[in-house]
Design brief:
Layout: H1 11-15, H2 18-23, H3 31-34, H4 50-58, H5 61-83, H6 85-93, H7 96-103, E1 110-114, H8 121-128, H9 141-149, E2 154-162, E3 166-173, E4 178-182, E5 185-189, E6 195-198, E7 209-211, H10 219-229, E8 236-242, E9 246-251, E10 256-258, H11 264-278, E11 285-289, E12 297-300, H12 302-319
Parallel strand pairs: 1-3, 4-7, 7-8, 10-11
Antiparallel strand pairs: 2-3, 4-5, 5-6, 8-9, 9-10, 11-12
Helix pairs in contact: 10-11
């Protein structure tokens, strides 16, 4: 005991475990003292205006740094755009969207091309503008289709995106149908009259030959004339559009057949019948004129004309 006859206890006995110490509350004998003391609220700081709050944010070190970096980044971006560096970057590696799409596996890994016979796959890729920097989500399929359709050899094209990384291109080619000679140059044209290439060799030498300004636009009419010729079609080697109005046909024997402007198909059918009946194209002639309705005018060769004149002259002398 101490001098006041109180029993001494150790600190451990008084507080028990540390958790007990943390949670225990002292028990006070006096009820007056056990009443809660009045709550004292701290005095509120004077309310700041909106301008003061904005100024406080502006002078904060983080805000100041962000402002500086933002200004410098904008300045560098503006300089890059003005100097062409950004455009060069896009042409080399693609847009930021392309970079992200390729990073997640949506680049163009496979290109399937179908429908080509005259064109090559490398030509299709060049015409379409497919690059390694492209990605499937950001590929302009409609723009690619328009670029392909602007190629004379291509009549139509279809572009399909097959996710995640495959591009399918389907081509409809224009097929060589005839040769068109204008101003001394021979072009290869399709059935719709589109000039698709120039004649470089004898690969297409067997195609029908049309001559004259605008002859390619009247190719459908020329085709009907040849169909109406029937058995004579094999003897017609070329057709010339005269003054953009009418056709003249040229045979393999170099005979010119002058057709009327109106109903040339019917005139050719009459000629085919006369050939079967009288073998008119087998005579020594240089031209047949069918332009006058119901008439056939024949132009003889110089030799045939001279021989005819001599024959007529002898007959005239014999009558004298």
């Amino acid at each position: 005991m101490d001098g006041g006859r109180r029993v001494l206890r150790s600190l451990t006995e008084l507080i028990g475990s540390p958790f007990t110490l943390a949670l225990a509350r002292p028990q006070l004998a006096s009820s007056a003292l056990s009443r809660p003391s009045p709550r004292i609220r701290p005095a509120r700081a004077p309310r700041r205006s909106r301008f003061d709050r904005l100024r406080a944010v502006a002078v904060h070190p983080l805000a100041t740094g962000a402002l500086v970096f933002g200004f410098l980044g904008g300045a560098f971006a503006y300089a890059a755009v003005r100097g062409g560096a950004y455009e060069n970057f896009i042409q080399t590696v693609g847009t930021p969207g392309d970079l992200i799409a390729r990073a997640i596996g949506m680049g163009i890994d496979t290109v399937t091309i179908s429908g080509i016979s005259e064109l090559k796959e490398t030509e299709i890729l060049a015409y379409a503008g497919v690059k390694a920097r492209n990605s499937l989500p950001y590929l302009d399929a409609e723009g690619m289709r328009n670029r392909l359709r602007s190629v004379p050899m291509i009549a139509d094209a279809e572009i399909r995106k097959l996710y995640p990384s495959r591009l399918a291109i389907t081509i409809v080619e224009r097929q060589p149908y005839a040769l068109w000679q204008k101003d001394g140059q021979i072009s290869i044209v399709s059935a719709d009259g589109m000039a698709i290439d120039t004649l470089h060799d004898d690969r297409y030498a067997s195609l029908p030959l049309i001559v004259g300004d605008g002859a390619n636009d009247r190719l459908d009419q020329y085709r009907k004339i040849i169909e109406a010729a029937g058995d004579l079609a094999g003897r017609i080697k070329a057709g010339a559009l005269v003054s953009k109005r009418r056709w003249s046909l040229f045979t393999t024997d170099n005979v010119e057949i002058r057709l009327p402007e109106l109903e040339p198909e019917a005139a050719v059918q009459r000629l085919a019948q006369m050939q079967r009946d009288y073998r008119v194209l087998d005579k020594d002639i240089v031209a047949l004129d069918l332009r006058a309705p119901g008439r056939l005018e024949v132009q003889l060769s110089n030799e045939a004309a001279s021989a005819r004149l001599d024959n007529l002259s002898r007959k005239a002398k014999g009558k004298v």
